[in-house]
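call fold(seq) -> tokens
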Amino acid sequence: MSGPSSSALAWRSGETVRAAVIALALNLVFLSPIFQHPRNWGIEDWDQHAFYHEAARISILDYGQWPQWNPWYCGGTDLLANPQSRVFDPAYPLVLALGSIVGLKIELALYAWLGLLGMYVLGRDLGLDPVSAWLAPIVYFCGPTYALPASSGMTWIMSTAYIPWVVLLFLRGPGARRAAVACGACLALMYLGGGVYPVVVTATFLGFLAIASLRAWGVAAVTRLTVAVLACSLILGAAKILPSVAFMREFPRRMDQQSGFSVQSLAFGLFHRDQSLSMAQAGFDGDHFDRSDRLLRGISTDFDDVGMYIGPLVAALAVVGLASRGRRLWPFAASIPVFVWLSFGDRPRASLFGALHTLPVFESMRYAERYRFAWLLAVCMFAGHGVRWLSCRLQRAYPGRRLGAGVATLVLAIVACDLYAITRPIYRAAFPIPPLAVRKAAAFAEIAGLDGYDARGFRRGAELETYGAWSSHYPALLMNVGAVNCYETAFVPRRATPSTSPFYRGEVYLEDGDGSASTAEWTPNRLRYTIDVKEPRRLIVNQNYHSGWAAADGRPVENRDGLISVMVGPGDRSVELRYGRKAFTVGAVVSALGWAALMVVLLVARR
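ret:
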């Protein structure tokens, strides 16, 4: 495997435009149900992710601040530094302009389109003709692999649209410096878009391809390419990477839950036609981690991390493609068993996932099943080669009749119709909740949390339902209250006192003694209080302490039982506190310089 094939490089004029139009048509056909009720709220994780987006939107539009601190979450914690935040995503202006619900739905469709086009271009580079190259995009981005995580609110799924582009540019990298730089830029955009899991999976896949290509490309070329991609991704993504690294070091997210496909759940995900979030669970009677047949039976996680229907026809075509092109594309062929092994997680006695899971970054990987994004890409590409082999055989057997192209088109139509019948119901069920009526409070206050909600409104226990929201942070934000009991897997502190607690003393108060303190200005990143005291007193702010808080006049801001505190005296009439991470400031400068340099290089190259 040594770069783009000659058939891919001999594109006829207009093919790129044609491919973009076809990808857009497929995108609209499959994803249109999410726009049936454009303002409806989503289920499961959609509440949390709509909350992340809307909190940043309010910080930017209402307060004119970079959304560094999130006072509405867990009693106050980071927003921009949270690895799942998507403030720097190139499509985030859609959220700013249209609101989080509508903007995110458009983003879902936009990234599906980008992924479809990228997978098509990658297929053409790997030797597929203009018909067979469409099989992989249809299966990967029009099927449940994209639809299930999207319908359950995992907004990081949008970053998987960069995966085919990253692989494409990496394969071109040894012969083109600009391709290596573009590969690093795509990885950076993945992370800037909150795609933590896709970045880890894709980087692991690139590492495997690099090792597999050592003999063909040479050690020096592989080393130069790897260093160039890594350096570009770190520089261009520094605005998000540096504060995220600091956040994860402060609040480690070491996931020790066991995960991974069993043979049974793998077969279920690939071939079972019920791919809804409430899939029939017949035969799944537990995780089976304490039984001798744990590799064979059981299911480790919810169905949004299991469903990836391809069907028997695509599987058979992949086998044909492996037989016909496996030697030519042997790194892709070899990646399938390796990454399937990874996606089996902790179930095998010899666990490759377990070995990786001891390393930094990998230790935060929650579900081994997410490595399916790597090996499924290879399977889909070989299925495309299976269609191409069939088309060529028929064309040779019946020359002049265009029978090969006709049969290839028919196969694509059958696969697309099969996926249409399976995927459309997933999207139809994704946004069933009409906007709930909430009233915004005049002043911010901390609360313990709200009841869950679903299509019937707020009700206790709705967060346990498949088609209910798994948290209530989004409506709480709209009400201008902060939920201390937060739905967050990073182990951030939760020390603020809810207003319903008997120990609640207000959002700002003096720890003891006479005097008064009141809020003069409240914003997410900046707090100003009016003070009236006769002798030194400690001012307490009812939000979690973090070292990023500083006083405008330089006085120390201290941790008092987990809350923000500062000493004030008789000479003080007001005190102002500001939040900011130095890692963000440094990262923003590095990223800005990196992107500016990249634009200059592109302009010079274009001239």
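The chain has two domains: 6-36+81-428, 508-581.
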